Amino acid sequence: MNDDAANENQILLCSHCFADEGLRVDATRHGLEQPDECPQCKSTEGRKLTKSHIEALAWYFFVSGTTVRSEYGGYPRIQFNEHHYGETSISPSAWLKNDIKLIEESAKIGFFHYGPRFWMFGEIEPLKALQDPATRQPILERILNEYPVVALAKDTKFYRLRVGPTEPADPLEYDSPPVALAGNGRLDSAGFPVMYGSQDIDVCIHECHASADDDIFVATFKTQRDLRLLDLTHVLQEDVTEFESLDLALHMLFLARSHSYEICRAIAQYACQAGFDGIIYPSYFSLIRTGGHPFETVMGMSVRRFHPQANQYANAYTIQNFALFGRPLESGLVSVECINRLIITQVGYQGHFGPVTY
Ligand SMILES: [Zn+2]
Predict the structure, then answer these.
(1) How many CB atoms lie within 10 A of CB 321?
(2) Ligand 1 centroid to 271 CA: how many Å?
(3) What is the rounded CA–CA span in Å between residue 303 and residue 47?
């Protein structure tokens, strides 16, 4: 074993070293089970941590754990790096002070209050233009021109889930809601119904806010001809700064809460007028469902832009949801192949901890 490899595998701390309960629990989850004595606290029971474990733990607890969401985007209140080693400037709770010292000394890093760049909370020109109906049109045109068209082949299978349908065995229950009832979702609007589908059942469950108490049914659909979809999950290759990025604008738009629906609906209607059958869009829950890489900057955004295989990266972390315009079962665009009852036995929330003050 060479020196570098030996250093990488060297045990520096363990989960029992920490006083903060959240940090102990997170360290137990990520550390190695190993009978040796901890070089710091001498425990044999604690899960052991190498330098890379400690860096990952620091990222989860202090960076992800202090990330705040803004209307669009989000950013961490705390960051760390090796340049701030010995100059940590945050003010944590009393019980966390010694834990932080242990982390700093073993990983040779320092923590500091992070001043986010403005684009991280939505100061992005195309996103601002989309928010004002008066300046929206040119951006809608760019979206249609710059995002790729994807053909969903005939006979492609997908799912749609319904909570408490009146007649669960009736296929018509699984079409888009009647025109008069449209307008509650991210992409449908008054007089413009949309069928939401996914190839991932778990995403369907999250997207429709189903719980273990609900009576849930899932229809398996097949497309009856090739469908032409606008793919908004594609990562655009752009030669501009974050402040001008259409890619980041759309990424943030689909991760934003219901205040963003009006814009998403305008995109859907515009795509429909241009002759598309529907759009593929990133799931609001895709980041929760797939987790994320521990060292991406904020909500996948910088990695999304600069990763050498940007598209493969984004695809691995995006579940493709689609929305088909109108009432596709009624119009013969899709057919129901099967209907099942769905029993939820476990709602999969996983969490990690963060500090309360800093
Ligand atoms: Zn220890």
Answers:
(1) 27
(2) 57
(3) 30
